[in-house]
């Protein structure tokens, strides 16, 4: 399947941003001028915006590109409006305790599913299995090595509206990742979509 250039740029910024025009041109096999023109169209459409990055030396600051809120909405957020309405209704009818019970039930179901899918003997195996499960759920997840540590990177959140309405979903996921990684590891969230990060990034460190 061939995707339009604009869609390829949006996807690349989503998964690698912030990125420069030169990087987009190089990675997507475009001329710099073609990449610049496509980016300007996306800026005009309100899907992409510039972000100034400090210069490495005495030169001018570099402008990189990130997705706007509208740009991020081009990627699916599962039944966002309905989910938010349901969370608000649960709060009104059953209070925060009722919402906590709902999150605990979801966590228990996810724990059983993840434990069955992530049965690798090594930490790397379990993390790669976890990334595959999360990708299947729409999180666009991958695992990267960073020195002695591992990074679980999620470029998208398909339940972003629910997470914005209730931070308990994010706390629950962090706890699940810690359990999958094991007692001899420490899992910490280093970037958070809801805090303005371009993605969620979790560092897994052996202790």
UniProtKB/TrEMBL annotation:
<dbReference type="InterPro" id="IPR036388">
    <property type="entry name" value="WH-like_DNA-bd_sf"/>
</dbReference>
<dbReference type="Pfam" id="PF12802">
    <property type="entry name" value="MarR_2"/>
</dbReference>
<dbReference type="InterPro" id="IPR036390">
    <property type="entry name" value="WH_DNA-bd_sf"/>
</dbReference>
<dbReference type="InterPro" id="IPR000835">
    <property type="entry name" value="HTH_MarR-typ"/>
</dbReference>
<protein>
    <submittedName>
        <fullName>Transcriptional regulator</fullName>
    </submittedName>
</protein>
<feature type="domain" description="HTH marR-type">
    <location>
        <begin position="8"/>
        <end position="55"/>
    </location>
</feature>
